[in-house]
Automatic annotation (TrEMBL), chains A, B, C:
<dbReference type="GO" id="GO:0005829">
    <property type="term" value="C:cytosol"/>
</dbReference>
<feature type="region of interest" description="Disordered">
    <location>
        <begin position="1"/>
        <end position="24"/>
    </location>
</feature>
<protein>
    <submittedName>
        <fullName>RidA family protein</fullName>
    </submittedName>
</protein>
<feature type="compositionally biased region" description="Low complexity">
    <location>
        <begin position="1"/>
        <end position="21"/>
    </location>
</feature>
<dbReference type="InterPro" id="IPR006175">
    <property type="entry name" value="YjgF/YER057c/UK114"/>
</dbReference>
<dbReference type="InterPro" id="IPR035959">
    <property type="entry name" value="RutC-like_sf"/>
</dbReference>
<dbReference type="GO" id="GO:0019239">
    <property type="term" value="F:deaminase activity"/>
</dbReference>
<dbReference type="Pfam" id="PF01042">
    <property type="entry name" value="Ribonuc_L-PSP"/>
</dbReference>
Amino acid sequence: MTDTAAAKTAVTPATHTTPPARFSHGVRKGNILQVAGQVGFGPAVAGRPPTPVGPGLREQTLQTLENVASVLEEGGASWEDAVMVRVYLTDTDHFAEFNAVYDEYFTDRVTVPAARTTVYVGLPAGLLVEIDALAVLD
Amino acid sequence: MTDTAAAKTAVTPATHTTPPARFSHGVRKGNILQVAGQVGFGPAVAGRPPTPVGPGLREQTLQTLENVASVLEEGGASWEDAVMVRVYLTDTDHFAEFNAVYDEYFTDRVTVPAARTTVYVGLPAGLLVEIDALAVLD
Amino acid sequence: MTDTAAAKTAVTPATHTTPPARFSHGVRKGNILQVAGQVGFGPAVAGRPPTPVGPGLREQTLQTLENVASVLEEGGASWEDAVMVRVYLTDTDHFAEFNAVYDEYFTDRVTVPAARTTVYVGLPAGLLVEIDALAVLD
């Protein structure tokens, strides 16, 4: 490998709690930046387990998007570089409210919105939303 | 950014209904083309909400694959460029029928089939299948 | 296409059973290697349908990770090149045990762990885990 731009690096925002297993919150290699599945945990507090910012969808969604944004930024990217956002909700009844919060969040944040897939899955108790993202840097 | 090939552009086939939130049906940046999750909606009709082409798995699957193909083509790619297809079904009992339709669709359409992951999730009422794809252009 | 490095090729480890539909276990195009969703099937035996290595999460997880590794290796990559691992489990109660096995497996296998998303979905009867991966080669 002669091009050091291709080196794989972990992306770990200071605000993030330690992952519960051997994975990275984000990984950059070359011009690809992959953000791991983020949830609505508030900023890490030493000695305390990760805790969602609130029981509601709105609060969790905004925090989750902020957590994705932190990884993008730590990796030298922004939402403008995101090509894909994967959204995992737990209840199809949450779709409309989620979209309203999503749109509000992205107003003034992106010129070209990322693609998105939304599906309904199981998540650990207390979590209503999980989001990951793929970015391609310039 | 000196290489204009790296510019991020939204890919929006004329046949597609407007996304229900701030996301793009497809996004191309550099040689990466990401297709958002497509479902079995028929071509957009002004003034009408998006509607699945039929209640059955076969019709929805074929339409969904066509909708993915439209985004690939609008982005300057084809199924030959697709490296990954993500399939979301709602019922494990649909696997065999889905595969039969999938194989029929791809006969004569690809030389090297994309990789694929199939999992079973919840989808909004009336939808039996959702598919997204990642393509790498030449 | 003048750059042969961009050619799309299927990646098919000899140990793998034939996919149940027109997809590839792995696809490489340019520096992108996508591994299809792998499950805990043991090595292919001619004339026998694919069978999980065991009913338990631990055995299936280790075999699934080995199956992903086989595709990475056949495609000229290793876990060090993986930027994303997608984990599909069937039960939130499996998270802790899965993570313990995951960590054990990756000790001494990677310097920079891949990003990861874990969600809970339905899988065909008998399967407890499915995993796919995206790698970026040097």
